[in-house]
Amino acid sequence: LLAAATRTPAFSARAFNRAGLLWREQGDAAQALEAFRSAVRADPSLVEAYEGAASILADQGADRELVELIEMRLAAGAEPAEIARLHARMADLQLKLADRAGAKRTLVQAMEVDPDNVSHVQTLVDLYIGDKEYDEAAEALLRLAKMTASRTALRDILYRLGELYDRELANPQRAEAAYR
Asked: Distance between CA atoms of 37 and 13, rounded to whole angstroms?
């Protein structure tokens, strides 16, 4: 009976997770991490195992491995708010790793789940401008303008959009419209 139970991914994941908790209690981060990783491989939706591994990886500064762990967790699915949070964390890590293209892809995915997140759009604007992807930056600024309720913030966004059209995209008509 025990042999049959250990063949199920859910049982294996819980067993490895428990081992990870015990190893962590004993102060052995390496063994705990290996157990938590085994649990996540068996069942990526086991949040406690994911969080155990993520905590250790973050403490170790193992950003690349943490991105891989987040990708596994995302593949398992979760509630939309959790998916958006995971994407945001992954994008931050990708930026830290100088993976600007990956961060842009991840932020676009985050916006599919959380389309009203101003921070994601603002970060995308900055990345697009930094990478001289001006058409994409203009689209993101327009999206940001539609999301903004503050008249002062809207004025600043439209001014920035006007500068982009004027200086980088050589489109004086759109620049004039943005400046109005």
From this structure: 9
